[in-house]
Design a protein that fits this description.
285 residues; 34% helix; nine-stranded mixed β-sheet; alpha/beta; three-stranded mixed β-sheet
Length: 285
């Protein structure tokens, strides 16, 4: 096969095309670097970066800790080029997830921009209606100490609780096999928790004052009642239909003789047993 000679004119045209390609490549590269440099510089301009954080709705969660958490997330740069605090590219989803994780007392959270420089964070805290205080009731009340956690209205354990003397909050005792803190766990499923609380409320409506519920591993549960001289309790089973046993108890308390005996001898009451269908058993000391 013979080589076909190339004319000087054709060779020059090819060379000029290659030169133009190289020049265009260099030009686009320079333009790209200039644009990236400009955007990098512009992203850090004080006029378009978040410099103020406004937090509202918190009463227990420390506002300074919330602000510190947010500032940590918007500090630094993406790929060492673009400011994380820029109002267009700040890491909203990262901030949202971090606050929810680090501050379990937060139930609802709203993050919005006000202008280019202000980040408004509005939170709603969970209501601490009940306490979870471990596996079993200590022999001495003072040993409860600060081992309790707040529980919301769905049975969700969401924050450590300070020590409360007396029975300010209704307390739950139940073994939770985690090997770590129970924070962020469901003590019971929301449905079962609501059933249990309807039972507790029903007992209260009959004139009793329940303050503790011990959910034992053997499936025999005890609601402890306030009393001057003893610790009476209401007993039920894990597999009881709680609406049925409450109806049985209400029916029994509507019987004058039963109610009179319970009330007149309440200071010596040992227990009221609701474990058996259509029966309400009781015992005095």
């Amino acid at each position: 096969m013979k080589d076909i000679p190339t004319s000087p004119r054709i060779a020059l045209i090819k060379h000029n095309r290659q030169v133009r390609r190289v020049r265009l490549l260099v030009l686009f590269t320079v333009l790209f670097i200039v644009v990236i440099g400009f955007l990098s510089y512009f992203s850090s301009n004080p006029r378009v970066t978040i410099s103020k954080i406004v937090i509202s709705g918190n009463s227990i969660v420390d506002g300074s800790k919330l602000e510190s958490n947010i500032k940590e997330k918007i500090s630094g740069k993406y790929w060492k080029l673009f400011s994380r605090a820029n109002f267009l590219i700040y890491p909203r989803s990262t901030i949202y997830s971090s606050l929810q994780k680090e501050f379990p007392r937060i139930e609802k959270l709203s993050i919005k921009l006000e202008g280019f420089n202000t980040l408004k964070v509005d939170i709603r805290e969970r209501a601490g209606s009940y306490l979870y205080c471990g596996e079993s009731v200590p022999e001495k009340k003072e040993d409860i100490g600060e081992n309790c956690y707040f529980v919301n209205n769905d049975g969700y354990i969401f924050d450590r609780a300070p020590y409360f003397s007396g029975n300010i909050y209704f307390k739950f005792y139940k073994k939770i096999d985690t090997g770590k803190s129970p924070l962020g766990l469901q003590m019971l499923s929301p449905e079962r928790f609501h059933e249990v609380m309807r039972l507790i409320d029903g007992v209260s409506s009959l004139g009793f004052k329940p303050y503790d519920l011990v959910l034992s591993q053997d499936g025999i549960h005890s609601i402890y009642l306030e009393s001057k001289n003893n610790n009476p309790k209401i007993i039920f089973k894990e597999d009881n239909d709680l609406s049925v046993i409450l109806d049985n108890f209400v029916t029994a308390m509507n019987q004058k003789e039963f109610a009179k005996e319970i009330n007149s001898k309440y200071d010596t009451l040992s227990y009221i047993d609701l474990r058996f269908n259509n029966k309400v058993l009781y015992k005095f000391q």
